[in-house]
Every structure is written in structure tokens, then in C-alpha cells.
Design a protein that fits this description.
heterodimer; A: alpha/beta; Rossmann fold; six-stranded mixed sheet; 10 strands; B: alpha+beta; 4 domains; six-stranded mixed beta barrel; 22 helices; 22 strands; 54% helix; elongated; binds adenosine-5'-diphosphate; binds magnesium ion
């Protein structure tokens, strides 16, 4: 990314000022139980307590099925916890209605999923516009695409782009609303190392330039060195939290 | 203003779906067009009739007598409930029109001296005749136009043997004659049948009715008890040869208008609901599939913060855009259809002003119904999209569960190939869709069966009426009753080979409280021209004693063979008697009662008499006969049955042409809409499965067999179902048409079923080929690489 662009980003994002005293996310004894009624119960989350400070890049690690996505969905307002409490800043997510959660997602959350999840019938710019159409304080779609280095691909449809490019469009779409948090569920899971690096670089840029609290779920332990904080998951529980004294840059990540 | 990204998605989705959307829009358009035409025509005709009737003071009750003194009119007016009454003299004339060889006849109606107060003719051109004039007349504009007459032109009429030269002073229309059939005719005959209005004095002179009248029209007060009124009027007229008062529903023109209105109402009650129902089904099926396909996109939109309602509206809008397109097409088609219908009506019905069926609210109602139908169809899918939990939506759907069962047991026994099993399992997997697709296809068949059956039925009517029962070439209706010697006189007319007499005696038949006014037709025993047919349409001899009743009449009176009917003479004779019903006869046009001429004469205690003569003629000598008839004194009118049949057949075949095009279109649109969308959805659902088969080494042809096999099976199931439903609709139509004016038999031929099946199977094949082309072009292997 060019420095010119970065400068403009800073000026755009400067209004995104929040108190550093309250954590971005806080959870207390969160559980999520699937099934019941005849089928076997699955405790996807089994009492999760977390405090995630504002502005950090956090990596969630853990084996498949350990409950990472479930936690991300609850923090992103896509799903309800079975019990316990979760706050985004000073808002209690667990008491919100579906309608309030929608509002919360619309105003605060940027999502990036493993499978790029672009709308196939919309161009890159239009996919970003999906968000800027409804967000309270969005940046122009072209600008968001420029942030991820795709200003030339605005009018391409998903089918005309590589996987990495599609994922960068998804990131552009996630940041275009100037979200309070960026939640990424295995954003590089379907990508090769080169394109994966480009995607990570985009995430890193957003985090450092905007101070956007960013949660990244990954299988790739190499990525953890990028993070301020690494949370290790097992069987629906947090088993370890580790703060990195020194962080590596995205392009240094090994695959 | 920029379109929102979600709206762009909507438009692009619509464009991608264009073929399926078009197929749906066309079915909907059909429904809108027919509904609009039906509703528009019914309302316009109703309004036009009401307006016309009010302006021209169309009477409520009509009666005739042989000869009543004019003073009786006071007594009629004095009846409580009568608003006004008008006495007229009416009579039949034979016309001698310059330049026309074929016989023509007319009905003369007197214009009361003080000016008509009821059934007032509406002047089109010229002026009313002078009160004192002897030869000035008004004629119907239709008659004038058909013969090129203008005010000032003259033509000759023979009334009661007197030859009159009449001068046309004006042309008119009348609410009494919006639809006019000549005596014995089945279709209007503008050129050959005239309604002639003549000043009262002149008419009384011609028909020897000075100080008397033979026709009564009455307008009732709104609150009058109609039945009581009719009884009172009958009582007053009875001594003067009254033959029974009746209301508008038995006035010929009005009755035909009502029959037409009923038919329109039936059309709009049956076809649009079918078409709208199919629209609901198609939208439901297609949108349901789209929502299933776009599951993860829906989850994504929700994750991005779109509200459930916004997403539901997004899919509703897709349906509504398709519907809006269909409605616009339907409006255009409806406007075209209605104006065609108006033109057709203008041909058969004589209205003073154009019938305008296109009012804004008819468009609005039809459009609303179209949109609502699509909306209803979209509800389920939109609801499913709205309630889809975002976290669930992002994970792939659970594959449909196939269970082992009955099918597997059968296939093990019969060694059904695996490809066939896939087809059968698919059918069983979505039982509702299977059922509704078959039903939809069967309605395409049914509509054809139900429309084609009319042609076969009318053929049967013609065959029965003309080739089996009324086989005479011509019927001469005499101005007055004559002794049997009239038969011998007629035999001397040029070209006449055979003459059979008929005597029509006006009576009231009753059984308990049920009664019917009609004429008993008496014919010689062993007659060979005008014959009566039994219920199976075999000729049946007239009984030595008793009377034959047409099935409709027997049903109305609630009698069968062996029962007695009470017969009260009306007209110039008085008396009453009981007659046994000997048998019931088949007759589709009108109702009738038949006796032997000598039996009836004996009952009346008089010599046999004649009111009409049925002729078998040497058709080579027709011109000479027609010339002779023009100056035959005792003749009221002559009916050429061959002409009647031909004009009936011409009208039918013209209507059949229109109907065939219309119903073929509807049926094809339904069939293609259902079959194409069904196959497209299967293609979409089975794309991965079919791709796997291709990788396993199945050929393109084998793969399309699986895909199209399902459509083929559904189309085959639809055939017998369609015959059944079509037969049922035909039966309902037969029942609906059942009136005293005419009935139609239920004739369902194998040919009809076969044609309907051929047409719909061809349409299904066309739809299947379109989908097969898509399948052949599709890169199935690429399908496997994409994630659903
Ligand atoms: N919708 C669901 N219904 C039932 N079980 C689920 C559902 N979603 C997730 N699970 C189960 O919850 C557990 C945690 O899943 P998830 O959070 O997706 O794990 P991760 O993202 O760490 O791989 C797994 O055992 C998974 O099978
Ligand atoms: Mg996961």
C-alpha cells in the first residue's frame, strides 16, 4: 500500500476515538450449548472469560471444533450465548434482541469469512457498497478498495478475481464502514501463502492505521507472531492467553 | 441517485432468471388479461344495459293476447304496482326487398299515437313517421345498413295478404332488440329480418285491430310484487286470448344478453383463478429454490447488518418485479382482448353506444390481484430468508434425507436401473412439488379438453337439431290458422316435393305449483321431416294418446313417462285438460311438447288445423319457390333451415377459431411455464449429482435422461388427471349453459383427449429441450469445484 493512501486513512479514521479504559470485548462465563431434545448436547463454549483491550490484534488458535467460530459469532452478534454475559465496550450483547444485534452489527462489526462470501452478482465496488449503503458513517467504496490495493479491480465480478483478491474485497467491505471491531474467521484458510500474506498485510494495515480491534481465527500458528495477544482454545475453553512482546510483520509470516 | 447495491443484485438476479421469470410473467399476464377482460366486459355490459334500459324505458313485464280492447289498458294501469303500461299492435310480415331473392320477413310494431312511453326506439337517422301517415315506418338501423336503405327509401311488405309499400323515414335502435333472432333462426340476420315501427292507426288498419291491441308492455314500481303483478295481468288478458305475461328474463334480447353475461362471469370465475394459482405455485417454487441457493449470501447480508425485513423484501421484490412485468403484459393483452371482444359484441349485439370495458379501476384491480398472487407465492421463501439464523446460514445445508422404503423393495424386485431410481427418489423427495407440478401440467391439458369439447358438443347439437329432428328444408309460418287444405295448396308451390303440417297451440302446462307457458307442436303421425327423438336421439313416433315432453321441460315440471300434466289453453281457445306424458325427448335448442295432430284435434273437439308447413324441396328450383313465397298471401314468415344451419355453423366456426387460438395459447403458456421452471429447478438441485455421474463416465444423453425423466413422468401423470379435470370443467359448463333457450350435451371424444395431450406433451418437450440445451452447454465439472 502506498504512503499517500495511508495518510488519507489516518485522517478518515481519526474520528474513531474511543476510551482506552473500557475493553473492546469482555465476556464472563459464556457458554453455548447446541442440540438437546433427543440429539446429544454439544458444549461448544464452556465458560469463557475474556478481556480484549481496544485496538489490539488478537489471534484465536485452537483445533477444529474447539468453539472459536462460536465465540466469534457471539461477539459479532450473529448468535446468542446460552448463558453468561458478553459486552462490546459498554453494551451487553447477551441481553440484546435480534433487532438490536442487527443494529450492532450494522454500526460496529466488520466480518471477514473463510470463503470470501462475496455476492456473486455484484462487482467488487458493489460488494463494498452493500455495506456503505447502510452503515452510519462509511467511507466511499472506491477508497476502501484502494486501502486493500484493489482500486483497479472495482468493476470486476468475484468470478473474475483470484481467491486472494476476493478476500481483500471482503476486507475492504469489512472496513468500509469504519467498524469498531474486525472479526475474521480463518481469512487465509483457503489461500496459498502468497495471497495469504497480502490478506494478512491488509489486516495489519487496518489494525495499525485505524486502531481497529481485530480478532483473527486461524489454524496457522505462524500467524500468531503477528498478534498483540494470542488466545488458545480447547474444548470450548480458553486454555492459554499469551501476550507477544515483539511482533513480526505480515510478510514475515511463514506458512 | 445511485441504485443501492442490494437493488443492483435484485436487477442482476432478475436478468439471470429472465427465462424463468418470463415463463412466470406470461402465465400471470394471461390471468390478468382474462380477468380484466371478463370483469371489464361484465361491468361495461351491465352498465350499458342499465343505462340503455333506463333511458329508453325498457319494460319489466311483457304479455301478448289475441285481441284485447284498448279500454283494457286502463285496467292494467290501475293495478297497484304498475307504473305505466303501453298497448301495441304487433304482427308479422313477409318482405319483398328489391334485389334480394332470399326470403325476408319482419315484425311490425305499432307506435302509440301519443308517442311511445315504454321500449322507446332511439332514433339513429331521419325522423319518426307522421302520426297520420299510412306508409311511413321506422326500421332498425341494422336492417337499413345491411340493405343499404336510407330515410326516403321504400320497400314492400306483405301483411295478411295485403301488399304494402313502405317508406323509411328513420332508422332506430331499441332496447327490445339488442339481440334479435328471426323466427326459427339461431343467429341474427340483419339483412333478412326487419323490425318495423308503424304509426298505430296504420298498423291497426293492416292487422285489422282498430280499437284493440295484442301486445302489452308494463313497467312496474320498484316495490311491486312481480309474481302477483303477472297473475293480475294474466287474469285481465285471459278473456282476450292472453298467452301469459312474463318478465324480462324471458324477453329474448334480454335473455340472450344475460346468457352472455353469465358466460363472461363463468369465464372470469374459472380461468383467472387457475392462472393466478399456477403463478403462486411457480413463484413459490422458483423463489424457494433461489433462497435455498443463496443461503450463504443471505447469512452474509445479515452479518453485514441487513435487517430480516430488508432481506425478506429483497426476495418479495424479485417476485413483484416479475409480477409487475406480467401485469404490464397482461394489461396490454387485456386491452387488446377486450377491444376484440367489444368488436365481436358490436357484431352480434346492437348497442347505441360503444361498450368501453377499459376503466382505470379494472386495470387497478387486475394489477393488484396479479401482484398479490406473486406476493403470496413469494411469502414462504421470503419468510424462510427472514428467519434464517445468520450463523446457521453460513454453514452448508444438511443434505436431503433419502429413506429406504417401498421404492427400494420394488426396484430390487424389478431390477430398475439406478438412473431410474434417482428419478423416482427425486419425485418422492419433494411430494408437494411433484403433486403441484403434475396438477399444473394437468390444468394445461384440462383447459384444452374443456375448450375443445364445445366444438364437439355444438356439432352434436347441429346433428341432432338439423339432421336427426328438423330435417325439412324450409318452414312456412302461416299468418293465421288454416284448415288442412293448406297442405295441398303448398304442394303446388314450385319445387315443393313434400309437405308436412304442424299446428302450434299455446298452452300453460302445470304440475302442482310448477308451470310453463309454451306451445304444443302437433304433427301428423308418421311424419318424416320434423321428427321427435328419444333420449338416445333415436326417432320416436308420436303417441296415439298423450304428449311427448322435451327433457328440460319434463325436468322443469318434475314429470316422467306415465305422469299426467295439466294443460290450460291460452290464446283464442279456452279450456283445460290432463294429458299423459308418453315419453321424454332429446332437444337442445328451446323446449317443446309434441302430440299427434289428430289426437290434439280430437281433444279440442275440432277439425285438424295448421299453423306452419314443413317443406322438402327440390333445391334446384329454390329461386322459383322464393319468388312465389314473396307474394304468398297467408304467409307470416318463411324459414330456410339450410340457411339457419349454415349461419349457425359459420358463427360457431368463427368463434372456434378465436377460442382455439386463445386457449391453445393459455394452455401452452401454462405447460411451458410449469415444465420449464420445474426442469430448471431440478437442474439446479442436481447439478452436482449430475456432474459426479459425468465423472463416473455417464454420457451427456444418460445424464439428461435422469434430469428430464422426472419431467417426463410428471407430464405423463398429468395426462389422465388433465382429462379428468377437463371433463369435469366441461360438465360444469354444460350444467351452466342449461337454460330454456338452449342446452349443450356433454360430448367428450377420444380425439379431444388425444389432441389436448399431444399439444401439452409437445409444449413439455419444447420446455425440456430448452433445459437440455442448457445442461449440454453447462460445464458440469466446474460445478463440482464451486461450493454450493
Ligand atoms: N449449528 C450447530 N449445531 C450443532 N452443533 C454445532 C453448530 N455449530 C457448531 N457446532 C458444534 O460446536 C462445536 C464448536 O464449533 P465451532 O465453533 O465451529 O468450532 P471451530 O470454529 O473452533 O472449529 C463443534 O463441535 C461443532 O460441531
Ligand atoms: Mg470455525
Amino acid at each position: 500500500m502506498t504512503h499517500v493512501l495511508k495518510k488519507s486513512i489516518v485522517s478518515i479514521m481519526s474520528e474513531n476515538v474511543v476510551s482506552k479504559d473500557i475493553p473492546a470485548f469482555r465476556t464472563r462465563a459464556i457458554t453455548k450449548v447446541y442440540g438437546g431434545h433427543g440429539t446429544a448436547k454439544v458444549h461448544a463454549l464452556d465458560g469463557v472469560d475474556l478481556d480484549l483491550p481496544e485496538g489490539e490484534l488478537v489471534v484465536l488458535l485452537g483445533p477444529s471444533g474447539s468453539g472459536k467460530s462460536t465465540l466469534l459469532n457471539i461477539l459479532g452478534g450473529l448468535d446468542h450465548a446460552t448463558s453468561g454475559q458478553a459486552w462490546f465496550r459498554d453494551q451487553d450483547l447477551t441481553t440484546m434482541t435480534d433487532r438490536q444485534l442487527t443494529r450492532y452489527r450494522r454500526d460496529n462489526v466488520g466480518f471477514v469469512f473463510q470463503f470470501y462470501n462475496l455476492v456473486a452478482s455484484l462487482t467488487a465496488a458493489e460488494n463494498v457498497a452493500l455495506v456503505t449503503d447502510i452503515a452510519p458513517n462509511p467511507m466511499p467504496a472506491e477508497e476502501a478498495l484502494a486501502l486493500v490495493g484493489l482500486q483497479d479491480r472495482q468493476h470486476h465480478f468475484p468470478a473474475q478475481m483470484s481467491g486472494g483478491e476476493q478476500q481483500r474485497v471482503a476486507i475492504a467491505r469489512a472496513i468500509a464502514k469504519r467498524p469498531g471491531v474486525l472479526l475474521c474467521d480463518e481469512p487465509t484458510g483457503a489461500l496459498d501463502s502468497k495471497t495469504g500474506t497480502a490478506v494478512l498485510a491488509a489486516l495489519e494495515d487496518v489494525n495499525t492505521q485505524f486502531g481497529t480491534t481485530t480478532l483473527v481465527i486461524t489454524h496457522n500458528a505462524g500467524i500468531r507472531k503477528m498478534a498483540h495477544r494470542v488466545i488458545r482454545f480447547q474444548d470450548g475453553r480458553v486454555v492459554e492467553i499469551e501476550e507477544n512482546k515483539t511482533r513480526i510483520r505480515a510478510h514475515e509470516v511463514t506458512w | 441517485m445511485r441504485l443501492h447495491a442490494l437493488d443492483l443484485k435484485l436487477l442482476r438476479d432478475l436478468w439471470r432468471l429472465k427465462a424463468q421469470a418470463l415463463a412466470i410473467a406470461l402465465v400471470l399476464a394471461c390471468g390478468v388479461a382474462i380477468f380484466m377482460t371478463g370483469l371489464g366486459m361484465v361491468r361495461a355490459l351491465d352498465a350499458t344495459l342499465e343505462d340503455y334500459y333506463n333511458r329508453q324505458h325498457f319494460a319489466d313485464v311483457f304479455a301478448s293476447a289475441r285481441r284485447a280492447p284498448i279500454s283494457l289498458l286502463r285496467d292494467v294501469e290501475a293495478i297497484d304496482g304498475v307504473q305505466s303500461a303501453q298497448a301495441r299492435v304487433v304482427g308479422s310480415v313477409v318482405l319483398d326487398l328489391p334485389g334480394r331473392a332470399a326470403p325476408a320477413s319482419g315484425r311490425v310494431i305499432s307506435l302509440p299515437t301519443a308517442g311511445p312511453t315504454l321500449n322507446i326506439p332511439l332514433l339513429v337517422s331521419g325522423r319518426f313517421p307522421l302520426e297520420s301517415s299510412r306508409d311511413e315506418v321506422l326500421v332498425t338501423a341494422r336492417f337499413a345498413e345491411a340493405n343499404g336503405y336510407h330515410p326516403g327509401d321504400r320497400f314492400a311488405a306483405i301483411a295478411d295478404g295485403k301488399r304494402l309499400t313502405l317508406t323509411v323515414t328513420g332508422t332506430v335502435r331499441s332496447p327490445e332488440f339488442i339481440y334479435t333472432l328471426p323466427p326459427g333462426g339461431l343467429m341474427p340476420d340483419d339483412a333478412g329480418y326487419a323490425i318495423i315501427w308503424m304509426p298505430e292507426t296504420a298498423a291497426a288498419g293492416v292487422f285489422d285491430m282498430s280499437g284493440a291491441f295484442n301486445d302489452l308492455s308494463v313497467r312496474l314500481r320498484r316495490d311491486a310484487n312481480r309474481e302477483a303483478m303477472i297473475d293480475e295481468i294474466d287474469k285481465l288478458l285471459e278473456p282476450w286470448g292472453g298467452i301469459g305475461a312474463h318478465e324480462r328474463d324471458q324477453q329474448m334480447s334480454h335473455a340472450f344478453m344475460q346468457a352472455e353475461l353469465d358466460q363472461l362471469r363463468n369465464m372470469s370465475a374459472v380461468l383467472p383463478p387457475i392462472l393466478f394459482g399456477i403463478t403462486v405455485f411457480l413463484v413459490n417454487m422458483v423463489l424457494g429454490r433461489i433462497v435455498a441457493l443463496e443461503r450463504s449470501e443471505i447469512g452474509l447480508l445479515k452479518a453485514l447488518g441487513y435487517r430480516d425485513s430488508e432481506i425478506a423484501i429483497h426476495y418479495l421484490m424479485l417476485a413483484l418485479l416479475i409480477a409487475a412485468f406480467g401485469v404490464c403484459l397482461g394489461w396490454a393483452a387485456g386491452a387488446w382482448l377486450s377491444s376484440g371482444m367489444s368488436r365481436l359484441y358490436a357484431k352480434f349485439f346492437d348497442f347505441p353506444w360503444l361498450v368501453h370495458p377499459h376503466s382505470i379501476d379494472v386495470y387497478a384491480i387486475a394489477g393488484m390481484i396479479g401482484l398479490v398472487a406473486a406476493g403470496i407465492g413469494a411469502l414462504r421463501a421470503a419468510w424462510a430468508a427472514a428467519v434464517l439464523a445468520p450463523a446457521v446460514a453460513m454453514s452448508p445445508p444438511v443434505p436431503p434425507s433419502f429413506r429406504h422404503g417401498f421404492l427400494d423393495a420394488v426396484s430390487d424386485r424389478l431390477h430398475i436401473p439406478q438412473t431410474m431410481m434417482m428419478v423416482l427418489r427425486g419425485l418422492r423427495r419433494w411430494p408437494f412439488r411433484t403433486a403441484f407440478t403434475s396438477l399444473g401440467l394437468s390444468l394445461g391439458v384440462a383447459i384444452l379438453v374443456a375448450s375443445n369439447f364445445m366444438l364437439d358438443s355444438l356439432d352434436a347439437v347441429i346433428d341432432t337439431a338439423f339432421f336427426k329432428s328438423n330435417r325439412q328444408h324450409a318452414t312456412l309460418v302461416l299468418a293465421h290458422e288454416r284448415p288442412l287444405s293448406a297442405v295441398a295448396d303448398a304442394r303446388h308451390l314450385p319445387g315443393v316435393l313434400m309437405v308436412e303440417p304442424q299446428f302450434d297451440l299455446p298452452v300453460t302446462m302445470s304440475v302442482g305449483p310448477r308451470e310453463k307457458k309454451l306451445a304444443i307442436s302437433a304433427r301428423p303421425a308418421g311424419g318424416d321431416l320434423a321428427r321427435t327423438l328419444d333420449i338416445d336421439e333415436k326417432p320416436v313416433a308420436l303417441p296415439e294418446n298423450g304428449v311427448l315432453l322435451s327433457a328440460k321441460l319434463a325436468q322443469h315440471l318434475g314429470v316422467g313417462p306415465g305422469d299426467q300434466v295439466h294443460v290450460t289453453l291460452s290464446g283464442s281457445r279456452q279450456g283445460q285438460t290432463f294429458l299423459p306424458v308418453a315419453a321424454v325427448t332429446q332437444q337442445y335448442i328451446g323446449i317443446g311438447a309434441y302430440m299427434r295432430l289428430d289426437t290434439l284435434a280430437a281433444q279440442l273437439n275440432e277439425e285438424p288445423r295448421v299453423t306452419s308447413l314443413n317443406l322438402w324441396i327440390d333445391t334446384d328450383k329454390l329461386p322459383e319457390l322464393q319468388a312465389a313465397l314473396k307474394s304468398m298471401p297467408a304467409l307470416a314468415t318463411s324459414v330456410m333451415l339450410t340457411d339457419v344451419r349454415e349461419s349457425f355453423q359459420d358463427t360457431i366456426s368463427e368463434n372456434v377459431r378465436i377460442n382455439t387460438v386463445l386457449f391453445l395459447t393459455i394452455s401452452a403458456l401454462i405447460t411451458i411455464g410449469v415444465a420449464y421452471n420445474g426442469a430448471r429447478i431440478q437442474l439446479s438441485e442436481r447439478a452436482r449429482e449430475l456432474a459426479s455421474l459425468r465423472i463416473l463416465g455417464f454420457t451427456r444423453a444418460e445424464v439428461s435422461t435422469i434430469l428430464l425423466g422426472e419431467t417426463a413422468i410428471l407430464a405423463l401423470i398429468a395426462q389422465p388427471l388433465g382429462w379428468l379435470i377437463g371433463g369435469w370443467i366441461a360438465w360444469a359448463m354444460v350444467t351452466g349453459f342449461d337454460s330454456d333457450l338452449y342446452r349443450i350435451p356433454l360430448v367428450l371424444t377420444r380425439q379431444n383427449f388425444a389432441n389436448a395431450s399431444l399439444v401439452t406433451l409437445a409444449a413439455v418437450t419444447a420446455a425440456a429441450l430448452l433445459v437440455r440445451r442448457r445442461l449440454d452447454k453447462a460445464d458440469l465439472i466446474a460445478v463440482l469445484k464451486t461450493r454450493e
